[in-house]
Amino acid sequence: MAQRLHNFIGGSWRPSAATEALNVLNPASGETLAEVPLSPAEEVAQAAEAAARAFPDWRRTPAGDRVQPLFKLKALLEDNLDSLARAITEECGKTYAESAGEMRRAIENVECACGIPSLMQGRNNEDIAPGIDEHMIRQPLGVVAAITPFNFPGMIPFWFLPYAVATGNCFILKPSERVPITSARIFELLQAAGFPPGVVQLVNGGREAVNAILDHPEIRAISFVGSTPTARYIYSRAGANGKRAQCQGGAKNPVVILPDADMEMTTRILADSAFGCAGQRCLAASVAVTVGDARPALTGRMVEIARSRKVGFGLDAGVEMGPVISAESKARIESLIGLGLKEGARVLVDGRNTIIPGCEGGFFVRPTILDDVAPAGEIARTEIFGPVLSLMHAATIDEAIAIVNRRSFGNMACIFTTDGANARRFRYEVNAGNVGINVGVAAPVAWFPFSGWGESFFGDLHAQAHHGVEFYTQTKVVIERWPRDWSRKF
Ligand code: NAD
C-alpha cells in the first residue's frame, strides 16, 4: 500500500485524521507514489494555533539569529539537491535538469532572505521639527500562509517561506495535493535546519484546508499561486476576511518575432519556452506572433524542433520533455487542440494520442504547433497549460503589440529582434509584469520581485525580494521628543 503523507505541525510529524485521501501519481507511468490526506479544517486550526504560540518568541529573536536556520537550510538544500530533483521529476513529470533548475531558484531565494537584517531596515529622519525625530520600523504580521500549485513544487514555496520567517512571521504551507511529496522532503530539511516548533508548518489538503486557511482569524496574510479562477476566489475571500493577499494566476504568454531576429537562436529559445516543462510553466511561450518575413523562417525551424523533441520519463537519459500532470490535463489539452482546429487553425505538428513505449500508463502530449490561430478566437485567449504553441502573424510591429495587449492575462511578453529601438518600444508599451528581450522565459532572479499584471495577478506586492519583505511586514511610525529641559514649554 502507498505511504500516507503526514502533516508537520508544532515541530513534529502528525498523521492526519482525514477521512478522504488522494493517490499521488507519477505522471510518466500512472504508478501510485504515495497517498495524500485531505486534511480537515481542525488540522489547519491546529497549525494556526501552534504558529500563534510560536510567534511571540520568534518575533523577539534578533533578525541576525532568525536567519541562522536559513543558512543551514541553504547547505541542506545543496546537499540534497539531487534527491529533491528526483522527487520533483517523479511526481511532477518534468525532466531532471528542469527539476534541478527549479531547486536552484529555490536556494537563491533562501540566500536572498538571509539578507533580512539589511532588507528589513526601516527609515528615519532626525529633526522633523526641532528636537523631534521620526522613525519607520517594520514588524512581522504574525501567522501567514501560502497555497501553491502543482507545476513548481520545489521552487514556489520558496518565493514565500524564507521571507516570511526571516521577517519574524510563523508560516503555514498548503502544497498542491497533486505534488505533496517534494514538500514533505523540504519539511524534513526545515526540521533539520533547527527552526523552533511552530515557525514552519505543513498541512496537506484540498479545498477544505484552503477555506479553513482563508477563514482562520489567526492567519493574517495569504500568498497564493495557481489558476486565475482560484486566484480570484482566494483574493476575494481573503479580502472579505480582512487578510492581506497576493494571488498569482494563470497566463497566456505571447512572443513577438521581428524579421531581423537571429532565427537560429530565436527558434531554439522559443522551443525551450513553449515545450520546456511540457508547457506547464506560467512563463511558457504559448503564442508566437511573427512579423512580416519572420513567418517562413520561424515556422519551418519550429516544426523541425517540435517533431524531434525527445519525450519520455524525465529521469531517463536524453529525455527533453516529460508528461503533463494528469489524465484529465492530457484530455483537456487535446480537446483544446481540437477546439483550435474547429476555430480554423491548422495543425502543423500534432501531439495528441501520444503513447511512449515503456511509459504506456503515462500522460503524454507531444509538442504541438497550431498555425493561423485567429487572434480573437477562444484558443488565443485560453490558457492551455500544455506543450502547444499557437502561431499568429502580423504585418507590422504595431499590429503585433496590439495582439499582445488584447489578452486579459499579463504575466509575460517577449520580443526577439536585433533592433534596439523596436525592443525598447515593445518594453515600453506591452501590458505584462515580465518582459523578455531575446529571452524566452523572463523569470526574475530572487532579488527582483516577480508577478504578472491583469488577470495573472490579484494584489499589490509581488513575490520575492523586497516585495516579499514588504508583504510580510507592517510599518509602524514613531515620532519622538526627548527634551533636555522638561521645564521648557512646547
Ligand atoms: P489550481 O488553481 O488548480 O491549484 C492551486 C492551489 O489551489 C492548489 O493548492 C489547490 O489545492 C488549490 N485549489 C484549487 N482549486 C481550489 C478551489 N476551488 N478552492 C480552494 N482551493 C483550491 O492550479 P494548478 O493547476 O495547481 O496550477 C496551474 C496554474 O497555476 C496555471 O494556471 C498556471 O499558470 C498557474 N501558475 C501561475 C504562476 C504565476 O506566477 N503566475 C506560477 C505557477 C503556476
**Percent helix range:** 25-40%
What structural class do the secondary elements suggest? alpha/beta
Sheet with most strands:
7 strands, mixed
What's the pLDDT, averaged over the residues?
97
Shape: globular
Classify the beta-strand content into a percent band.
15-25%
CATH architecture of the largest domain: 3-Layer(aba) Sandwich
What does this structure look like?
This protein is α/β, with parallel strands linked by helices and 490 residues long. It has two domains: 7-249 and 456-478, Aldehyde Dehydrogenase, Chain A, domain 1 (3-Layer(aba) Sandwich); 253-437, Aldehyde Dehydrogenase, Chain A, domain 2, CATH 3.40.309. It is built from 17 helices and 22 strands. The strands form six sheets. Strands 14-15-16-13-12-18-19 form a seven-stranded mixed β-sheet, sandwiched between helices. The protein has a six-stranded mixed β-sheet with strand order 9-8-7-10-11-21, with helices on both faces. It has a three-stranded antiparallel β-sheet with strand order 5-6-22. α3 crosses α8. The longest helix has 20 residues, at 41-60. The chain starts with 6 loop residues before the first strand and ends in a 9-residue tail after the last strand.
